Amino acid sequence: MRDFKTAYLQALLFLEVVNWFDGIVLDRLWVSHSKFWVIPGTEDLPFVKPWKTVLVKRSLAMPVWAVIAAVVAGLVLLIF
Questions:
Q1: Structure confidence by residue, pLDDT tens digits, 30-72
Q2: Mind spelling out the 3-state secondary structure of 40-55?
Q3: Helix (H, G, I), strand (E, B) or coil at 12
């Protein structure tokens, strides 16, 4: 990578996709449909966050990832 913009956009895309993948696929779908995460004796307790909580949390994290992507892009340009 030769310029900051390219490095920044690639880092931002990666971080945002991982953010949403983790929230939707791992936290909601995989955990909620797997019996592996149920601890014996706690079957009645909710262990999966509601959709609204996941969506709000991931949306609020987006600006944070934008800042982190800038730091990552700067480090990549310094190293390479």
A1: 888 777 777 888 877 777 889 999 999 999 999 999 999 999 9
A2: CCCCCCCCCCCHHHHH
A3: helix
CA distance 14 to 39: 33
Cα 59 to the chain's mean position, in Å? 10
Q: Given CA atoms 8, 14, 19, 24 in this order, what sign does their dihedral have?
A: positive
- Which of 65, 80, 52 lies closest to 8, judged by CA? 65
Question: Which residues have a Cβ under 8 Å from the Cβ of 70 and sit 6 or more positions away?
Answer: 8, 11
Quote the crossing angle between the two packed helices 51-79 and 4-21, to the nearest 10°.
Answer: 150
